[in-house]
Design brief:
Layout: E1 2-4, E2 11-16, H1 17-24, E3 44-46, E4 52-56, E5 59-65, E6 68-75, H2 77-85, E7 90-95, H3 97-105, E8 109-112
Parallel strand pairs: 1-4
Antiparallel strand pairs: 2-7, 2-8, 3-4, 5-6
Amino acid sequence: MKIQATRNEFLPTWVKRDLLEELWVRNPNYYVKSWSGEPDAGWFSYSMSEDKTGFCTGDMYFEKVDGQLTIGFENGRHRTRWLMSLGETLIPVGLEDHHYKKALSIGLAVSRVMPDERLNA
């Protein structure tokens, strides 16, 4: 299914799941340790026939907590955890341009999601 932004400024970006976990666990205010069960229906877009057509990424940003670089979410931390639980090496999240540049510089981001790339979920 198509990978789409929740907000226009948070562009879908492929990030490394393992490094995302390392950064995320540092932030007790936003960390979601696990997800069990089905994904929430609100995380997707649908066609007129009610088929899932798109996945809306979680909107992520960088911040410092106790002097350590970590991540927070505008929204979507539970959907991001659900994606991580699927076991894929790369997962899509939404990042603003300045956070994308930071993610590239620390090796978290791989690339922006291209329009023809799809999520197998």
